[in-house]
Write a structure and sequence with these properties.
Blueprint: H1 12-27, H2 29-34, H3 36-42, H4 47-55, H5 74-85, H6 89-105, H7 110-117, E1 125-128, E2 133-138, E3 141-151, E4 159-167, E5 173-182, E6 187-189, E7 203-213, E8 217-219, H8 220-224, H9 242-248, H10 251-268, H11 286-319, H12 325-353, H13 363-374, H14 382-393
Parallel strand pairs: 1-4
Antiparallel strand pairs: 2-3, 3-7, 4-5, 5-8, 6-7
Helix pairs in contact: 1-5, 5-6, 5-10, 6-10, 9-12, 10-11, 10-12, 10-13, 11-12, 12-13, 12-14
């Protein structure tokens, strides 16, 4: 299935690059799928898969061209992670979030970007936005301590964005921000023991009394308002609306997992009998036909919501205009709606496929566990997103979450 919803300004060159990068991801699906069980057992993505993704250039898609990256639009980023997720949700999730963190690094000061990529353009970044650290203002920067949970992909990163309170010299909190810290200054605690998305290695990062220079701290308040530290105002990708992009980071893998579930059920239907009925295969059963139609329609809706949000974000960035509050609220609603629809598509596929879903050898059981876990990411809570959007529709801003 193809979806043509795209930003009006997308060129033939943009689409050709997207097609090339998605094709690269498709070529890796056999390897990625072969390592899926290992990912689960090791609670991290297999290094063989990471190396293959790196070699294919798929960790460079949101890196600035100044540092050898592709600097693609958000639609392309979604499609690359979607393609990988057809083989394994955890691998796609890690790829998506590491690429999202690279996009975020492109919003920092020029010196911060040089710190990350100036000596090694292959450096990767992970991120945790929650401001669970503590800070002390000192000359030239901050002393940071704390622990940050759910750092997806941290096994494979050389740098991390970590949420901090920004304080003045007297210790008063004056802003919320992100501190860019090398992994060499952090330790990793293995806390990721879960039933879904086990391969993401979303462990806890810890540091104590680490100095972070001021040029490696980004104001979240300013970023949400579309004001970034990067001096490269002509780079479209890094003008993209901060929160809507952050929300869409996690959508692509869920689109791919749902597509994989539907494809698997359709492939297996001719070979599966309908137990306790006179139907010789699921293909003949109207009940299965109806469920698969419902799942496919839900998946269509998920794609359309996600791609509309991406088109809105990409077009605003291309035009150099900031998305207004209502537009950002709709993008948040689109992301949440896409995730809910993708999850419901998988649940519907499972109803059609039957109890054999839960056989350990059946990849559908891993897809179900993974998408159930992924869909509960707090940043895309569908009820919060609906409340934000509903209030925005009647002209009410704020009062729920700053992440709009």
């Amino acid at each position: 299935m193809t979806y043509n919803l795209d930003r009006p300004s997308a060129t033939a060159e943009d689409r050709a690059l997207r097609e090339d990068l998605v094709a690269r991801a498709a070529k890796l699906r056999g390897l990625v799928a072969a390592n899926a069980e290992k990912n689960e057992n090791d609670r991290r993505v297999a290094q063989e898969s990471i190396d293959a993704i790196e070699e294919a250039g798929l960790f460079a898609i949101t890196r600035p061209r100044r540092f050898g990256g592709f600097q693609v639009d958000i639609r392309t980023k979604i499609e690359v992670s979607r393609e990988l997720a057809k083989a394994d949700g955890s691998t796609a999730w890690v790829t998506a979030l590491l690429n999202g963190a690279a996009w975020l690094a492109g919003d920092y000061s020029e010196q911060a970007q040089q710190d990350v990529w100036g000596t090694d353009q292959s450096n990767r970044l992970c991120s945790v936005f929650a401001p669970s650290g503590t800070t002390k203002r000192v000359d030239g920067g901050y002393i940071v301590s704390g622990s940050w949970g759910y750092a997806s992909g941290s096994y494979h990163a050389q740098w991390a964005h970590l949420g901090i309170p920004i304080v003045d010299t007297e210790g008063n909190v004056v802003d919320q921000g992100l501190a860019l810290i090398p992994m060499s200054d952090l330790s990793l605690e293995e806390t990721w023991f879960v039933a879904g998305m086990r391969g993401t290695g979303s462990n806890t990062l810890v540091c104590k009394d680490v100095f972070v220079p001021e040029h490696r701290v980004l104001s979240l308040t300013q970023a949400i308002q579309g004001k970034f530290a990067t001096p490269f105002a002509d780079e479209m990708l890094y003008r993209s609306a901060f929160v809507p992009v952050a929300l869409l980071l996690v959508v692509g893998p869920q689109l791919g997992m749902a597509q994989a579930a539907l494809d698997l059920a359709i492939e297996k239907a001719p070979m599966r009998r309908m137990a306790y009925t006179e139907y010789n295969s699921q293909v003949e059963a109207p009940t299965v036909q109806l469920l698969l139609a419902k799942a496919a329609s839900l998946l269509d809706a998920a794609h359309l919501h996600a791609y509309r949000a991406a088109a809105d974000i990409d077009e605003a960035a291309h035009q150099g205009v900031a998305m207004d509050y209502k537009s950002r609220a709709r993008a948040r609603m689109d992301a949440a709606s896409a995730i809910v629809a993708a999850r419901e598509a998988v649940r519907t596929v499972v109803s059609a496929h039957g109890s054999s879903t839960f056989a350990e050898v059946n990849p559908l059981q891993r897809i179900l566990r993974d998408i159930e876990a992924a869909s509960l990411h707090a940043v895309t809570d569908p009820q919060v997103s609906a409340l934000v959007y509903g209030r925005a529709l009647v002209g009410v801003q704020g009062g729920i979450t700053p992440l709009v």
